[in-house]
Design goal:
This protein is α+β, with helices and mostly antiparallel strands. The chain is built from 5 helices and 17 strands. The strands form 5 sheets. Strands 7, 8, 10, 11, 12 and 13 form a 6-stranded mixed beta sheet that branches.
């Protein structure tokens, strides 16, 4: 072996490793790095465009959700206002004239569907011939029927546990007198101005209400003991008034005030109310005249009205079974009613469907038009 000349022992035809082969290897790495860099930069660029797409999708989805929730508050009685309200919310939450938006009342006007679509321009994907991408969203909101509790939301001055709390009108309330289904309503009271709250201190016999039809006109209370509007069949001496605001001790003036201002306390199915027997023609007419004389200032009808209209009220349904004179009657449900007139103490109006803010639906609760807070179902 020639140690001074290693190449002498190398087989014929085998190339020697030298500076040329090292330069060739370095050239391969440079090519691979260049190709990998292009791929990496392209992926980052496409990721940026996808991120912009996702950002716009989030904006549109939030706008559609807000629009559906806002508009559905007017269903099912005023689909046109529900749609216009939803479109206004879409605009206020960032949609533009270039976006394709729609709001539609569906499922017999019980649900509001809102859709929105937007073309989003690409920035880096244009090198691949892609100019823009589209994002689209949809939301559906509804007001669940069959409420089990009224005045249950954050603006209701009731859920105070064992401490006192302050009402929305600044009134200091005493400790709650009961819990849901305990047999006693939570602490509450009546408002200080006409139409302040929508719970009316008139109860309807649940047996009578079960025969009523949505959209039909009825007399809410019984006012004439000698005629067809006498006391409820199973409640001798009772014409529908219940003591929600302590008006039983205040006479006609207290009854008049309670009817005009409404009740703001929480009430649930299973709670009991105290009846106020007797005919109170004058106080009933005088208390509600402030609600029914608003037709010119706030035109509406039972088929198209704002749910905040003071003529749209919630009435407790109770069981008058075995009730004679003053007695405790259990609440069995809640009805939505639109007052159209008060004549000689008779409260006439229409059995309607409407959203009652701050009310909660309950499984198996009877559905008499009063609907709970609007929720998203899609």
């Amino acid at each position: 072996m020639d140690r001074k000349n290693p190449a002498a022992k190398r087989p014929p035809g085998r190339p020697t490793r030298g500076a040329g082969s090292r330069l060739f290897s370095r050239g391969q790495i440079a090519v691979i790095f260049a190709l990998g860099s292009v791929t990496l930069v392209g992926a980052m660029a496409l990721g940026t465009d996808i991120g912009v797409l996702y950002y716009n999708w989030v904006l549109l989805q939030k706008a559609a959700d807000a629009a559906a929730l806002a508009g559905a508050n007017y269903l099912p009685n005023d689909a046109n206002t529900a749609i216009s309200t939803a479109k206004a919310y879409l605009t206020n939450n960032g949609t533009t004239s270039a976006d394709v938006v729609s709001a539609t009342a569906i499922n017999s006007d019980t649900e509001l569907q809102v859709t929105a679509a937007r073309n989003v321009p690409y920035y880096f994907a244009r090198v691949l011939g892609l100019q823009s991408g589209q994002v689209s969203v949809a939301s559906i909101a509804e007001a669940p029927g069959g409420i089990g509790t009224v005045n249950a939301g954050p603006s209701s001055p009731i859920a105070c546990s064992s401490i006192a709390c302050t009402g929305s009108g600044g009134q200091t309330l005493t400790t709650a007198s009961g819990s849901p289904a305990s047999g006693a309503p939570f602490a509450g009271g009546c408002g200080g101005s006409t139409g302040a709250y929508n719970i009316l201190p008139i109860a309807v016999d649940n047996l009578t209400a079960s025969a009523w039809s949505l959209g039909a006109s009825y007399t809410l209370n019984r006012v004439d003991s000698s005629g067809p509007n006498g006391p409820w069949p199973d409640a001798p001496g009772n014409w529908g008034l219940v003591d929600l605001c302590g008006q039983g001790e205040g006479g006609g003036a207290a009854i008049r005030s309670a009817l005009a201002n409404g009740y703001y306390g929480e009430l649930s199915i299973g709670n009991t109310l105290t009846t106020l027997p007797g005919v109170e023609v004058g106080p009933v007419s005088q208390g509600l005249i402030g609600l029914t004389d608003r037709t010119s200032a706030s035109p509406s009808s039972p088929s198209a009205f704002d749910p905040t209209d003071p003529r749209a009220v919630i009435v407790p349904l109770v069981s008058f079974a075995n009730c004679t004179g003053t007695c405790k009657v259990p609440i069995t449900g809640f009805m939505a009613f639109y007052i159209t007139s008060v004549n000689g103490g008779a409260v006439t109006g229409t059995f309607v469907a409407m959203v009652d803010p701050n009310s909660t639906p309950t499984i198996n609760a009877p559905n008499y038009g009063a609907k709970g807070d609007v929720v998203l179902i899609k």
